[in-house]
Design brief:
two-stranded antiparallel sheet, alpha/beta, 259 residues
Length: 259
Amino acid sequence: MEIFVCIKQVPATNKVEVDEETGVLKRNGVASKMNPYDLFALETALRLKQAHGGRVTVGTMGPPQAQSVIREAYWIGADDGYVFSDRRLGGADVLATSYTLSQAIRSIGDFDLILCGKQTTDGDTAQVGPAIAEYLGIPHAAWVSRLTLNGDGVDAEQQLQDVIETVHMPFPCLVTVEQDICMPRLPSLRIAREIGDRPVHIIGLDQFLDTDETHYGLAGSATSVERIFPPEHDTVREVWTGQDSADRLHARLRQWKII
């Protein structure tokens, strides 16, 4: 079984500046880490491989320095990894990012199962995974908390708002997983020593099936960020001590016309 896992390198801090002209995050010089939700997708893939055999390939869209997150995936247990890196891919919104990843996956080969974390911590849209599946024309399930192989496909247990629903999807298919699906393992020093300097493949737009630049990056984005800003805090705190605290609270609530 061939499994592909979408991973992403995200800022390791919430103090990230935004480019006022493009509306995209300024990532240069900012410490990065693997998107926490993607760790659950990678662990799910590795458990399926252990139980049923196959290979696990990981891929990320980003600058060349995103190789570090691929190497981290290697140390966890992934077999192969790609960075989809090209300046023409920069500034993509959800729509263009999803299309880019679908084209990148197609350029690599055929996969039975594509796994994604349910969302990223720097975007929180939870839309990229399902959108990739739509572009690839394959079935998909989101918010999956349990995944098992069943014949020519998988059974996916989805945590919907009011019910838990189990669906069967034939291969190829895509699944976005919840964080309670499993407990991710840590990178292994033993694996790091065994694989040594395993290469990371870097491919760009010229290797995709669709090389039309207008379909990618800012040019291929249907939306743009008008403004990003931290929430304003205007909380005022008072600390009361003493036996008259209850009377003061009562008087203040009457002043605010809450009671």
